[in-house]
Amino acid sequence: MIKLLFIGLIFSLFFLLTNATHCHSTDAAPRKQKLSLGVLLPETHRKLLEPYIKLALYHVHTTPNILANYCIDLIFKDTQCKTSLGMKSLFDLMSINQRPFALFGDVCTNVNEPVAMASKYWDILHLSYAETHAKFSSADAKDQYPTFFRMIPGDRNLIAARCHLLLSYNWTRVGTIKQSDDPRYALPHEKLTTTLENVYNIRVIYTAGISVDQEHNIGYELDELKRRDARIIIADFSPDLAIKTFCEAYQREMYGLNYVWILHGYHQNNWWKYTESTNCTVEEIEKVLQGHFALAFAPQRPDSNKAITSNKTVKEIKEELKALCDRRRCQYDAYSAYAYDGIWTLALALNSTLQTTLDVSPDLTSTKLLQALAQTSFEGVTGKVKFDHNERLGVAFIEQWWNGSYHNIGFYDNANEVFTIESTFEWIPPLDATVVIREKQYISYFLFAIMSSFSLFGVLLALFFLFFNIKYRNHRFIKMSSPNMNNMIIAGSICTYVSVFLLGIDTRNVSEMLFEKLCYAKTWVLSIGFTLAFGSMFSKTWRVHSIFTNIRKDKKAIKDYQLFMIVALIMAIDAVILGLWAVISPFKYSITDHEAFVSKNYLVIPQLERCQSDYSIFFQVVFYVIKGMLMIFGCFLAWETRAVNVPALNDSKYIGMSVYNVVVMCVIGLSLAFILQERVNEAFALTSFFIIFCTTLTLSLVFVPKIIELVRTPRGTEQQRYRKGMMKSMVGKNGTDNLQRQLSM
């Protein structure tokens, strides 16, 4: 029973649609006045679209208050997509007794253009449901085609959709590619670039022009885009040229997480799989396409459940078409809904015109009909139908290609100025350029804390040795080792430990002005510490050398103040050099850029804070020479006193070990620090380690033997044994007492 009712419904609908294109009357209803509509279509397209046109006309005729006393009669003309037949059809329609109130069609640009240019001379409305060529929205289109309208949303809709898409992801810098030998792509692309920069303030860094005849230039143009760091690329070209471009892009690695391509929607399934003319596989092309956007006019409105002007939803209209359509004769495509809305557009404009006049002659109504259509606004299958300067303000769908297929993720409704985008899969939009980040390299707080702790431990160790040296200064073994000079060694060591802390301070902790002063503090403290420690060590070794090389009995003792004067002299030399350095080439706070590296979408340029001095290398060399001479002199004294077998006063062995330690560590440390100067943490760690290690080892070599001796002989009463030959030749009979007297001065 249900099956019979369904068949009956189809038969009734088919009967009504069959007669929808003809005006007729019954005894119960008055005769309706017939208004002709010229339909220009190739016969092949007529077979596909006629059911949609008839359904729209049926809905118009059965809707109350729409053309109540009139009916539209369709006059089909087969143009075969030929210009000559299109013009002949126009002349035929213009020569009949009751001229059509409007023209509907064609699908072919080579028919629409001459017909639209000629229609203005008859002042007749021409509405195309499928015309997409950019020439009809050019600057002079209003003069050339004043009576021409089209249902397909024009370039201005796609341009606006693209611009809103860019803004939604905060992309303000793009590169573009246009097919320069085809006006279908070149004209709208030029309008796009102008709109991007003048209206939306989006910078177009480069526009690449490619063509079918010069395919060899595609690679060069892509190289230029890549050189200019174009990450967001908008392209307008044919599918064939697109495949070749993407093959070149694959070879240049212009794809992946850092690139986004924005294309025109081609409405053709699997267009990217035709790779025969390229050297790339389908899989390689798909790698480039992954994540790209495609924008095109919407085949239907996004909210398909909303009731439209015919009081039906898009879903209901589709069901009616499905029931009506023989699959061998018609199918739903991207243009079908626009044909349906086109009939409704003409009907509503005509209805509005007829309500203001009783004379329906073309000469009277054409101008008013054009005005009425320009002001038409209603809800259709393809969205809100509204015109501006003969251009449809419609809906553009936004699709994103993901894992082998397109996914609808949003739309832009130009009529209502609504932009919506919702991605259903995880996708991280890249930045529109490699962002340059100048990143100051600071020493890790953790590393600074560790080295400062070691340095603090060294200071405490030095203070312990100072306490030990002062408390037991009268112990015979300590007294003979020049305790005053030992205190100077400790003071110098504390300075070197403090320099580690100063090396780790940067502008996170102090101002730039104070940082410049710290540059002087670092240099002075380390230099003074070195001079105090090794100057004192070498000066007391010089005293031992003087005692054992001068065997006169009445020689004068070398007192501590004389050793202090030697150390003071060396420090004075340091002060003069440091003073000249400060006057001639003062330190300035500076930031130096080092080799950049790419991290994701960022070009990171490490910046290092420096104590900049124009002649710092010269003064450093002077310091190295002076300190080197001091070290050589110390080695000489240590070598000369190596035979003195008096442990209480002979530090030659330990001095030699200290010098060897310092020289080796300085050479290694300076070399590694220079190599790793761009790596602040490593450089600071190595420099601090060598300073702490050398200072601690030197202190240990000087004081640990004394502590051991103190433990062995707490009272200091044990007689020291000297080698007989040495004592006999150098000291004499009362040598021991005399030697002790000289060393205690």
By CATH reckoning, the class of the largest domain would read Mainly Alpha
N/C terminus separation: 133 Å
Largest sheet: 8 strands, mixed
Q: Give the tally of β-strands.
A: 20
Secondary structure tally, helices: 23
What is the overall silhouette? Answer: rod-shaped
Q: Rounded to an integer, what's the Rg over CA atoms?
A: 48 Å
Structural class: alpha/beta
The neighbouring-strand order within the major sheet is 7-6-8-9-10-14-15-16
- Helix fraction bin: 40-55%
* Average pLDDT for all residues: 82
* Count of separate structural domains: 3
Strand content: 15-25%
The CATH topology of the largest domain comes to Rhopdopsin 7-helix transmembrane proteins
Low-confidence stretches: 1-19, 24-29, 719-736
Annotated CATH homologous superfamily of the largest domain: Rhodopsin 7-helix transmembrane proteins
Topology:
Elements: H1 2-18, E1 33-41, H2 43-61, E2 70-78, H3 83-95, E3 102-105, H4 109-122, E4 125-128, H5 141-144, E5 148-150, H6 155-168, E6 173-179, H7 183-198, E7 203-210, H8 218-227, E8 232-236, H9 239-251, E9 260-264, H10 282-289, E10 293-297, H11 314-324, H12 336-354, H13 362-374, E11 377-380, E12 383-388, E13 391-392, E14 395-402, E15 405-413, E16 418-421, E17 435-440, H14 445-471, H15 476-479, H16 483-503, H17 512-549, H18 560-584, E18 588-593, E19 597-599, E20 602-612, H19 616-640, H20 652-675, H21 680-712, H22 724-730, H23 735-743
Parallel strand pairs: 1-2, 1-3, 3-4, 4-5, 6-7, 6-8, 8-9, 9-10, 17-20
Antiparallel strand pairs: 10-14, 11-12, 12-13, 14-15, 15-16, 18-20, 19-20
Helix pairs in contact: 2-12, 3-4, 6-7, 9-10, 12-13, 14-16, 14-21, 16-17, 16-21, 17-18, 17-19, 18-19, 19-20, 20-21
